[in-house]
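User: Last request for today: this protein with uridine-5'-diphosphate, please.
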Amino acid sequence: MTDPRHILVSGGAGYIGSHMVLALLEAGERPVVVDDLSTGLRSAVPPQVPLIEGSSGDAALIGGLIDRYKVEAIIHFAASIVVPDSVAHPLAYYANNTVNARAMIAAAVEHGVPHFVFSSTAAVYGEPREVPVDEAQPTAPINPYGRSKLMVEWMLEDTAKAHPISYAALRYFNVAGADPHGRAGQSSRDATHLIKTAVQAALGKRSGIDVFGTDYPTKDGSCIRDYVHVSDLVQAHLDALRYLRGGAPSLICNIGYQAGFSVLEVIDTVKRVSGVDFEVRLRQRRAGDPACLVAANARAITRLGWTPRHNDLDSIVRDALNWERQLAASSD
Ligand code: UDP
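Assistant: Here's the final one, the structure of the complex with uridine-5'-diphosphate:
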């Protein structure tokens, strides 16, 4: 009997990747995870899922896994994701996000993997000319993070023209929240993203929260983002897999709700949903932040058949809070 075909999930022990693995199992797929465990956790991967500790930039390792598990699609999450970090350490971002992705794509081509799903980002747009921003608008990233991801989109575009591989590059807006059933969440101790840090402040794990910039040209002066629930985000990857397997052409696609919230609105929501008031410190702008990023999402809905189910900031915050409470209880 030949081994069944698998889906290779790089970064499957991380925040989004661990939700992806659960969604794949629920959909009857067979995931196999490669993760260097630099930020991911072994415990985030269910025991029945093979977890190989290693780098997505290790072409020999990835090639071996593709052959061994008869990999039919790669979902490539492994990456560095903090915008201000990318400003301070650009070469580390180009190495981890761009160079390692090149190795993954090369292994996919060399070993005959037909489909590739890539975690791209709204940061490829930079400061969009129009909001909501659709996929036809020009890419002009304003930070190394966005550039490190845009180069991968270009590699995929060129590679899919030259080789028999199709891809979906999903441009994530701001991913947040946690599995509504409490099985997974954002576990990094040093997380910097807004909803995570705000719920930590609500639970007393931080002294309060800094608002980075109150002089942006927005309704209240703080930055506006489109926050997408991690469960809806991973569903878009299942939709993309189905789409590519059906023989449809490669696709670049925004994943967001077409709804913008300011930093101050998010903080108010966390205070209201948690019932806790915490200190809010108004600070200078942070390096690399665009003022406003909101997705136009018609393409995801019409081409991928994506149906958002958790598009409500209160639910995102509630699920993030529940996960943070679980983390707090388990570290007691
Ligand atoms: N932000 C903030 N305080 C924080 C974390 C984030 O004011 O403790 C702001 C940040 O400057 C940006 C927005 O929240 O305007 C979203 O930032 P985040 O790091 O969550 O995601 P990004 O959009 O950078 O990927």
